[in-house]
Amino acid sequence: MPLAVSEIINAPREKVWNIIADIDSAQSIVQSIIELEVLERPDTGILGLKWREKRVMFGKEATETMWISSAEPGYWYETTAHNHGMIYHSRMSLTEQGSQTVLTMSFDCVPQTWVAKLFGLMSFMFNGAVRKAFAADIRDIKAYAES
User: Fold this and answer.
1) Helix then strand then coil, % of the chain, to nearest 5
2) DSSP H stretches of helix in the chain
3) Which of 69, 120, 110 is CA-nearest to residue 91?
């Protein structure tokens, strides 16, 4: 179920990077995040940063523990989470476009159990809702970056 959502932000890449890489402030920027707790912090950079996030998804509260599993600071980072027999990968990436920045959020999941594989067959029904959630997150980041 790979999917991606992009938005042009009227701000330089460095400014947008500083916003998306500041996980501690995400709760005050992204409206759907209702609670965020950093669990592990690397000595330098963001690689290995691990946090627990509670947000509203599909009209209900959901909690995920995720960590930054790979990154090219200033350009992209990828998070990983394991839950319900799935491995989830999401990526926040930035591309300069003149004085603007294109922020892209992408997502994919890999089923690990037979139940998760069965659920994966029905995942197309959730793509629209996940796409809307990502679009809302990006709109919140855009509004913050452009203010």
Assistant:
1) 30, 45, 20
2) 13-20, 26-29, 114-121, 127-146
3) 69
The overall pTM is greater than 0.70: yes
- Positive or negative torsion for Cα 135, 140, 145, 147: positive
Asked if 91 contacts 69 with a C-beta cutoff of 8 angstroms, the reply is no
C-alpha 53/C-alpha 33 separation (Å) is: 7
Q: Which two tokens stand for residue 87?
A: 């491995």
Q: List the domain range (segments joined by +) for residue 58.
A: 3-146
**Position 64: which residue type?**
E
Residue found by looking up tokens 């998804």 in the block: 57
Total domains, the chain? 1
65-117 residue pLDDT tens = 999 999 999 999 999 998 766 788 999 999 999 999 999 999 876 666 656 55
CATH at residue 115: 3.30.530.20
